[in-house]
Amino acid sequence: MSNPPEERPRVLIVDDEKFIRDILADFLGMEGYIVRTAEDGTAAMTELSQHRYDLVLSDLKMPKMGGIELLEQVGKHAPQALTVIMTGFGTVETAIDAMKRGAYDYILKPFKVEEVIHVVQRGLEKQRLSAENLRLKEALSLYKVSEAIQASLSLEEVVATIGDTAMHEIHGDLACTYLDDGEGGMTERQRQVRVRGIAGNDEIRQGDDQGVELGRLDAAAIKAHFKEATVLLEHGQKGLRFFADRPERDLESLLAVPLRMKDRMLGFIAVASFGRAKRFDEGQRKLLAIVASRAGAAIENARLYEDLQSTFQQTIEGLAKAIDKMDRYTAGHSDRVAIYAAYLAKRLGLGPAEVEIVRQSALMHDVGKIGCVMNLNKPGKLTQDEYEAFKKHPVFGKDILDPIKFLNPLIPGVYLHHERWDGRGYPLGLAGNDVPLIARIISVADTYDAMTSDRAYRQAMPHEVAVGEIERCAGSQFDPDVADAFVVGLDDYREAEAAAGREIPE
Asked: d(Cα 173, Cα 272) in Å, to the nearest integer?
């Protein structure tokens, strides 16, 4: 074999007969393997705790710890190693049972050395191919994770992706993501736990243990650790010093890597395994470190986007309040229409992003009133000329929003919310489904709030009367499906709002 020394497969021979240990060690050594020996299972476990091995060749019957028990211990503490059982003629059934328990193969004594070499070669080749396939899967998984992280502008989605990766790729029992709180501390943003099921049917849940059974990390201690180190990897009792609340289960491994943007620490991701779960190795550390390196920039971008969204929302709300102040009778109208429109959008099955666009558009639906030069507080109804001028406010609204690119998705609701299902609306006279859904939603919400609010020329209508009008006008002024969705769930919605202490029209 031509492998460099550090890449040569390592084989551990375990047998209470020195002659067998020595002869197998000689022949396997001549094949190019790094070979060590142990006289029983107990000595083998000591060796396995100190060095990595690719294959364990073990006798079945030995003092202190036999082959079956050793097989179980190898599976728990050195799962990367294959185990081959050697046995006499009289215990073939036991050897077959060992294979059912996870042994790769068995060899009958007395054996030919060539047979042993063949089994070892075949096993190590299988292991090499499995390792290559695993690396390819990990690379593909890492690529998908990186793409998902980089593509998202949602901080919650980025954090969720990091947590999911830690649980599925690192195979932890606990994964926690902490981000800086802006005041020098760290806040837990996501917590996932693995609930062990029957026959390996594990379930991953969001923070189900409430931080009690698996403990609570000491974020300050971990942050302090990263001032001097680039990674935290501890096994057993040594890792407990990084817990503020000690876990109720035995800690196997704790792995944590920082989330950075240039030289600034944004937070960290930590993964822990408990009980007799797999001990984390260098490969898992590297994998998590690569994920963290991709996540740092994504977290920073998501935070910048959140700040932009916040500014955007403040701008919209400020404009809405400015509009409502033009008419003392319509104070709060834009806010209420936005609430009703969002409720209706959810009733119609729109997704969160679409609901938010509906809500923002409803907030801005009367922005064009800024361009209407008239007294909106005059008593009585508008004259015909005043009404014709007033009807231009959807066009003014479109003109106001059109140059502002990030407000463009709101334009259909602002521009067309006075269109009617029967085509008799304005400004374009569209009918039926030619009217965008967002405009049909806002039309119902706007009309309901207008009817249930005091105006200069009339008192507010009772809720029941307003609902009756919406039902009556379904199919003429309103899309009948939209009107029906609004009316059917409105009483339940009003009850929920009242229970929450929010004012609702009588």
From this structure: 6
